Amino acid sequence: QVQLAESGGGLVQAGGSLRLSCAASGLTFGSYTMGWFRQAPGKEREFVAARSWSLGRSYYADSVKGRFTISRDNAKNTVDLQMNSLNFEDTAVYYCAATPVITSTNSVDYGYWGQGTQVTVSS
Question: CB under 8 Å to 87, separation ≥6 — which residues?
Fold first, then answer.
């Protein structure tokens, strides 16, 4: 019943911006930490950002800190990822995920995943 659906991926030039959105259904959205992960070809899935459900804290990977911003709207059951100053290394499939663990940045704690959306950064 739980479904996470990402949107907003696409092709963007280096230095540009892109905003991803994830719509959640089938869960009590306000009781879950929402996270973003990404996976590039030939590489492991890596943590990008997360927003807790009770502590009001945001967490970011060092590689995106200062460039990406995660936000959530509990009334709409959505979580967004604003990506600025994109570079080639940001090219990956981006996944939305949910976990009841409050502070987790570990993919193993996330039990619900979206299908992913492709982000490609060109020169």
Answer: 14, 15, 121
**pLDDT digits 0-9 by tens, 38-71:** 999 999 999 999 998 876 789 999 999 999 999 9
d(CA 22, CA 4): 6
Digit-coded pLDDT (tens) for 65-98: 999 999 998 889 999 999 999 999 999 999 999 9
Cα gap 34→51, rounded to integer Å: 5
Query: Across the beta sheet with 3-7, what order do the strands follow?
Result: 3-7, 18-25, 78-83, 68-73
Torsion of CA 112, 85, 72, 20, to 10 degrees: -50
